[in-house]
Amino acid sequence: MAIVALVVATMWPPVSGDMLLIPIGGADANRVARKAVAGGAALLGAGPFRGSMVVTGDRARIEHEIGSWDIVVLAAPPAGCRTGRAPRVLA
Q1: What's the pTM?
Q2: Are the beta carbons of 68 and 85 closer than 8 angstroms?
Q3: How far apart are alpha carbons 90 and 88 in whole angstroms?
Q4: Residue 72 carries which DSSP code?
């Protein structure tokens, strides 16, 4: 039980900051990017999974814009979602 709680706590997205958006089912990277930007997020780059994006922004605004369960929002773990370079905004 403690291990499950630790995993959930580790992957729970922050209120504000870096997040990993993962499309489920039919959603693609373009839809993920559009929803994130519409929610006020800045795109930092591609995530470790096909179609996923690493963004920074306000979780409530992003989740409100997504409005469905075909894009999952998780914390962006440094080991899988950072390149060691300074974040850049993709336009």
Answers
A1: 0.77
A2: no
A3: 6
A4: E
32 exposure class (CB count in 10 Å sphere: 0-12, 13-18, 19+): buried
Count of alpha carbons within 13 angstroms of residue 53, beta-carbon side: 24
Task: State the Cα angle at 67 between 55 and 46, rounded to 5°.
Answer: 25
Tell me the Cα Rg of the chain: 13
Q: Cβ-count burial of 39 within 10 angstroms (0-12 exposed, 13-18 middle, 19+ buried)?
A: buried
Question: Is 19 within 8 Å of 56 (Cβ atoms)?
Answer: yes
Phi-psi region of 17 (alpha: psi -120 to 50; beta: other; left: phi over 0): left
Walk along the chain (91 residues) and give the pLDDT tens digit of each residue. 767 666 666 677 888 999 999 999 877 888 899 999 999 999 999 888 888 999 999 999 999 998 888 899 999 876 555 544 444 444 4
